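Can anyone check this?
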Amino acid sequence: MKKIIHKSHTRGHTNMGWLDSYHSFSFGDYFNRERINFGALRVINDDLVAPGMGFGTHHHDNMEIVSIPLEGVLEHRDSMNNVSLIKKGEIQVMSAGSGVYHSEYNKSEDSPVKFLQIWIFPDSKDVNPRYDHKKIDLESSKNKLIQILSPDSNDEGVWIHQKTWFNIGSFDANQTIDYTLKNRQNGVYIFIISGEIEIDGLSAQTRDGIGITESDDVKINVVKPTEILVMEVPMIKGY
């Protein structure tokens, strides 16, 4: 097993007043040659958007874009005529494919919205753009991982154009989580939304990330009450 850790305080930081964002990987004006991506995982942005503010209409192509709200309500609009309100307990996905325009705004005029924005390199280029969002059964995620994203449209959660699986869970202290990889050639990136965990002697706390490769399975020891996101992605050469 090989491990890397990205401590929360080492992330890139952008504060534009209306947007306060931390970047686990190189993004915008933040560039770290050692942290461009983790396999097909390209971006994890930990975003806080001020009341009534947001990202104006802008363009994306050939990227799978996932949003997971942590607090507040996020309003999505796109050039495919989708208009949606997304909140904690839901997941949103957009396959930018051959090109799409979209905007994301904080629906509230008095409370911030917090969400994770995650980008995944696709396994196919110039696909037809698509959008979806689904509810996450958070009650079922107590003390176990539940799948919220996969490459299979008939599987649990949303799906994307990449052999990637996301699982989320909320755990009491002193629990043990066993995650078995779908493919040993893949890697696993674990983002601690809150709490504290330990993996093979390596400790990680709130907003830290741990990347693991060359392992069939991962045993996660929960030290404090914890919410985690487990992302299994291909470690494709060139990513």
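Reply from J.R.: I decoded it. The first strand starts at residue 2 and ends at 6.
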